[in-house]
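Job type: complex structure
Entries:
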Amino acid sequence: MSLRKEMAIAIILGLLFGAGVAFGLRQLPGTVEKNEPVPTAQPDIAASPTLLLDKALSLEVLLPEHQSLLYEKEVAVSGKTNPLATVAVTSPLGEAVVTAGEDGTFSATVPLADGANELFVASMQNGNTATKSIIVNYLPDSL
Amino acid sequence: MKRKQYSIVFLTVITALSVLLMQPVFAQEDDSSEDSIIQQRITDLKERLATRVAELQSINKRSFFGILKEKTDTKFTVTYKESEKPIAADTETSFYTQNDVMKRTDTDIDSLEPGQSVTVFGSLDLDQKTIIAQTVIAQELPETMFGIVTAVDNSDGTFTVNADTSTVFDYEIGTTCSMYIGKKDTGKNLETCGLSKMSVDDLVIVRGKPDSTTISRAKALRILILPHPEKTVPDKQ
């Protein structure tokens, strides 16, 4: 076999091998995607239950006003939400749970701490929730 | 007859003298009654003025909680979310620091630092914007979280609540826990509880003090365990 013929065969074989490697590399990402590990039942914070606040449930705190000055040791929190919804009112010193009336109005009394108090109100009904938070400031007699 | 005439003259003179002498006395009585009327009117006016001043002071009374932003020796600004209040302090202003158990200690304006939470009690200045502070309390409010319990570890004394973020709460001796039990014959619908009563999937409102060193960890101060929203059934009243 002449040298020229051997070179031609070597070039053809090299081209065939190179094409094969190139084809293999091109197919590789698809193969990797197909071989993705199946998700296991490991704890996932993002997948843990999260409370969804539903805007369909209305909640309005009418009294007391935000940043109002109060002189009594406790305050009646009143407002309006969906009829017969369960309403929880909390202050730094206490909690109260009431059921809204047929017209959606509610009122619950909670104790106050000296100085600023965050009053947190949550309305709940049929899997829906709505919340509101206001600040009131209690000035005790001693000040 | 002459005697009778003398008697008449004498009586006439006496009567005339008496009238003349008594006139200033009656006049004095009139003056004093006028004075007392004027005095009464002044007293009434003073009382009405004092009442009106008290009413105006009451109308102008203000309080504001927020974060101390800027401070000079006599003025500072307090902000809460989008609201901002200019505050003026003077020698009459009292400053206190209040801890978690509401124990107050005296302090002064120099001890306050920007970024601190303060509650200001006072009255509006003539500009109707600035609060002239009478009392300033430096106090940190606990954070409130409304979410679902995702883990309870009775041995470790912790529970995890998932709301916008997931927070691990330490249940301590001073932690107060209440559970909603629905309307009972006693009229009470809340019952005192402990960590053992808490279960995964419970809906809770927790007030806690964030841990200064560890993110997403807090000390639970008060807990209210509520029925899960999907199970919420209105009370029968």
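Summary: Chain B has a mean pLDDT of 87. Chain B touches chain A through 48 residues (CB under 8 Å).
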